[in-house]
What we know:
Organism: Allocoleopsis franciscana PCC 7113
GO molecular function: RNA binding; tRNA (cytidine(32)-2'-O)-methyltransferase activity; tRNA (cytidine(32)/uridine(32)-2'-O)-methyltransferase activity
Mean pLDDT: 85
Largest sheet: 6 strands, parallel
EC number: 2.1.1.200
CATH architecture of the largest domain: 3-Layer(aba) Sandwich
Low-confidence stretches: 178-183, 265-271
Radius of gyration: 23 Å
Keywords: Cytoplasm, Methyltransferase, S-adenosyl-L-methionine, Transferase, tRNA processing
Structural class: alpha/beta
Strand order of the largest sheet: 3-2-1-5-4-6
Amino acid sequence: MTSSNPDGGEPEMKLDNVKIILVEPAGPLNVGSVARVMKNMGLHQLVLVNPQCDPFGIEARQMAVHGRDILDAAQQVPTLPDALKGCQRAIATTARSRALPTPLEPPRTALPWLLEPGITSALIFGREDRGLSNVELNYAQRFVGIPSSSEYASLNLAQAVAICCYELYQSTQTLSSPAHILNRVPPPQTGETAPLDVLEGYYEHLETVLLKIGYLYPHTAQSRLEKFRRLLNRATPTSEEVSMLRGILRQMEWALQSLPKSDVVEGNSSQES
């Protein structure tokens, strides 16, 4: 089966900054198949985290076929954080919806988020037998689950990568169209966004504490707080999340009260950054 790119190679350019990360792959045939489908779909960066097989051996190379250049250029790293260095966005694939803080999304909805211009991103796949651990899932910002029949929902690693690579490639075909931009879905919320008055209470509390510890100074507090506001407004936190942040501030205040005044004054030398 063959495919063509009527746009003369432009979609591939949009995929250059997407890493496909395999965590501890155990099957060389899977690794080779992944390299092949990446070549099919215009992806080039393959990262192998602590592979449990020979990813460059004869079996992998036979399965890679014309994707051997992808295989030869694959990066090997010891840990997932090493694989994610330089990435601003990461999506993990998993079937473990109950263990996640946010809902699973279908690939077609979530994966275009990885294609933002100027962003280096990653799509993470777990082990063939048990996927990604809870600790490893914490490194991702969004989570993808591939819908499949309840009679047999488990997908082979190479099959899962193929589906996601296909969806990424298809996204490049329409990514620049106005209709697609309007329909892009942001990361899902786990609850109702905090009301503005709740956020305002947090900002006031934050300013008070940061002034106490010397991180802020009265003459620069307003401009510095504007940066915190922009950061939190992008995150659109829930009321529960804002409550958690205020709990941290209250604990900081308690800790400050338990210190001798001389220690607090000496600690007010933190540099603003």
